Amino acid sequence: MARPHIEPFVDRDVGFKKMTLPGFPKGMKYKVLSMDPDTGACSLTVQFESGYSQPPGMSYSEMELFITKGSVTYGDTTYGKGNFFFVPAGVSMPAMTSRGAEGLLFYNFGEPSFIESDVDHPRALRNELIIVDAYEGLQWKVADFVKPSVAPGCMVKLLRSDPLTHAHSLLYCMTPNYWQDNISYHDCAEESYHIYGTSTMMQFGALPTGGYFWRPAWISHGAFSSQLGVLGFGRTDSTLHNYFHYNPWSTPDENRLRAAAQLRRNKPNLFKWVQSPDGHNHPHDFEYPEYDYNDEDGLGFQRDPEVYVHDHGDGSHSHAKPARPKARRAK
Known about the structure:
The chain is mainly β. Helix content is 8%, strand content 40%. Strands 2, 3, 4, 5, 7, 8, 9, 10 and 12 form a nine-stranded antiparallel beta sheet that branches. A seven-stranded antiparallel beta sheet has the order 1-21-18-23-15-14-13, with no helix packed on it. A four-stranded antiparallel beta sheet has the order 16-22-19-20, with no helix packed on it. The radius of gyration is 21 Å and the shape is globular.
């Protein structure tokens, strides 16, 4: 992802704009939290006016929606605040209406799109559709799915985890007087929105209700605390690993080198294989031969079904691939 570091941003400081992209009905408004200028993938705060009506349809991008206020009705079922939707690209959702609602809306791989259709795209992954009441339908759990984990007092409700990349979406809370005294960074991007409450980060100051950040990989953050507690919504683009330390001023380059040094110490054989002298050891998973590494490397625009496109720093080139890739999104 090519989104810039945004931290802190408070969406209550800006007004809603009318959604005018082709295909979207009138009555939808938005605020941009962050956007990838290359692909149009974005995170939005959205508002559906009372009387909003949308026909059955789909998006060409994987989409996530979390209701923070009011309710929406899909077909004959009404979903209030706390409901979460993960809608794979090309999956058709029933007609939607609203008497007024606000939420968080994420388009993961491309710009916002809506195509009227009452049937799925032929390549849609309907089995991956998730609809869950995060407030009433799930229990809070200790955040020990990440190891090493955060300090006690931070609880999570895991809403979705990608089976291949381990990218995840979750609700999290910090208890009153929460405090973590170390510094952390990750080798994934992460974003967060405060539904309620304020936390304070040493480097970036206070993040109140309506506060948001998009934090690329390798950015040091911490120590942080919350006096009265926080309810937030968070996402990552791959596995979340905490690299803890106590130097608040380490740079992204220093953090990258430190992470690579840990990999060299902890998994020396894997490190040496990846760091082949000619740079031509490339990933391939015999259990998932269809996985599209072109997209993961940001070279999906050069996609050819029979080759793996990559770049060693001296211009992109390709090698034959053992299997035709299966798209993770509809085309």
